Amino acid sequence: MRKIKSKIGLLLICFLSCLHYSKYIPNPERDIANWIKNFSYQKSLAYEYQLKTRFVEIKCAGKCRIGWGEYVKGVWEYPESSYHFEYIGIKDREWMKKGKEWEESARGEESDIFSQIERVMEFDKFEYLNSEGNFYYFRFKPNVPFLDPARRDEMVGFLWISKKTFLPEIIWAGLPDSSVWWRVKISDLNRSVKISPPLSRMIEYEVLFDSTGPEINQSIKMLKNRLGLLNVPFKLVKMGKKIILKFPSYYQIDDVKEMLGPGRFFAYNVADDKSGAIKSVYFANEPRKPIYVSKQVFGSDDVKSCEIKFDNLKRPFILIHLKRDSEFSKRVAFELNGSVVAITELDNPQKLNKIFLYPDMRYLQINLLKGFISQPLPEVEIKMIAKE
Predict the structure, then answer these.
(1) What whole-number distance in Å separates Cα of residue 291 and Cα of residue 285?
(2) Superkingdom, according to UniProt (predicted)?
(3) What is the DSSP string of 121-157?
(4) Would 346 be classed as within a structural domain?
(5) Residue where a domain terminates, one of 155, 187, 219
(6) pLDDT at 14
(7) For position 12, what pLDDT does the model report?
(8) Alpha-carbon separation of residue 203 from 84, 229, 319 (angstroms)
(9) Distances (CA, A) of 167 to 20, 29, 39, 73
(10) Whether residue 314 sits in one domain with residue 176
(11) Quick one: 247 and 140 in the same domain?
(12) Which of 103, 136, 344, 368 could form a disulfide with 28 if both were Cys (CB 3.0 to 4.6 A apart)?
């Protein structure tokens, strides 16, 4: 998982937050870029995949937890033969089924169809054609050199955006004569999807708290709560005064350090101008653009619970429930570990016991942020001990 940070400017985050309560009137030509971007921010999906060239046709179906892993099963069909395949891909590891056994290797394209889908749509202009039934219909220049490298400049792409979800549902790319083509159909957005490796080694880590930190039983409770919120498979063993955590081998030590990072989370009312500010805060990628804040409204200790939800445009957001009512200004900045991760705009200053934020992050990073808000940790040291 990548380090949590804001990736876009203040204007877009305010726009996303404001739309939470306003009626949305779609404008396909204007909104297509945001619809494509939001596609990668979903939690999960299922797909049907077909590819046809002069030499082979591939048909498969799969399910994907975006940014995490995929399960895919299908067939390669050649003129004289066919070959059935089954893959599981998680993070940077892949398992291919051979007979009744599974063979592990570095992850490749075969178990990462979602990345291929994203690359096909790596284009900065989509031409709106028309509104057709339940879809908005677009033409674009697809990134599909693998279909026919010699004729890549002739390729065309067509995209069907659902009027219900405002997300891609069908993507087609190929030559105008359909002699070679690629097609994906998307379904089952944001359902609970379980993808597990057929076999995996465990790696042991020792977790060291500072001498001034919580006592060991409290530390164990905090670790279990954080990892449970992140839905991470783990085993925890107490060995005297040592805390040992075991994770599947597809987690690297940097992943473990990130999951167990501190969670210094605060919400601030944004000041009208510099003169009314008590301090300035910043987005991680905009260190020269201060955001002046007038008051700290709440911190992690004031959070009762939080959850990830999707709005009517399928955009993920975090809904924070507070232990008591708090006074919010029209603009609220949320800071994690010294960097602003989102700004919410309200219609009016008001007293609330819950508030939403729209971080510009993929679902897995939003889930990590939720874990940081719900269960802060002090600074800890992580040491890899051994592989099982």
Answers:
(1) 13
(2) Bacteria
(3) T--S--EEEEEETTEEEEEE----TTT-GGGGGG-EE
(4) yes
(5) 187
(6) 46
(7) 45
(8) 33, 21, 34
(9) 17, 14, 6, 24
(10) no
(11) no
(12) 136
Same domain, yes or no: 250 and 269: no
Q: Is residue 195 part of a domain?
A: no
As given in the structure block, the two tokens for residue 48 are 């049907």
| 30 assigned to some structural domain | no
Q: What is the distance between the alpha carbons of residues 367 and 256, in angstroms, rounded to a whole number?
A: 15
Coil vs helix vs strand at 120: helix
Instruction: Name the nearest CA neighbour of 197 among 325, 72, 102.
Output: 102
In terms of DSSP bridges, do strands 57-65 and 69-77 run parallel, antiparallel, or are they unpaired?
antiparallel
76 and 179 in a common domain: yes
Structure token pair of residue 283: 């987005």
Report how far residue 224's alpha carbon sits from residue 242's, in angstroms, rounded to the nearest whole number. Answer: 15
Secondary structure letter of residue 383 according to DSSP: E
* Domain that residue 71 falls in: 44-187
**Number of domains comprising the chain:** 3
Task: Read off the CATH number of the domain in which 134 is found.
Answer: 2.50.20.20
Give the whole-angstrom CA distance, residue 239 versus residue 236: 10
Q: Both 48 and 169 in a single domain?
A: yes
- Is the alpha carbon torsion for 185, 87, 113, 6 positive or negative? positive
> Do 381 and 239 fall into the same domain?
yes
Q: Domain end: 131, 158, 187, which one?
A: 187
Residues 54 and 123 in one domain: yes
pLDDT in tens for each of the 388 residues of the chain? 444 444 433 444 444 555 455 688 999 999 999 999 999 999 999 999 999 998 999 999 999 999 999 999 999 999 999 999 999 999 999 999 999 999 999 999 999 999 999 999 987 689 999 998 999 999 999 999 888 888 888 999 999 999 999 999 999 999 999 999 999 999 999 999 999 999 889 999 999 998 777 889 999 999 999 999 999 999 999 998 899 999 999 999 999 999 999 989 999 999 988 998 999 999 988 888 999 999 999 999 999 999 999 999 999 999 999 999 999 999 999 999 999 999 999 999 999 999 999 999 999 999 999 999 999 999 999 999 976 5
**Which tokens is 255 given?**
């992943």
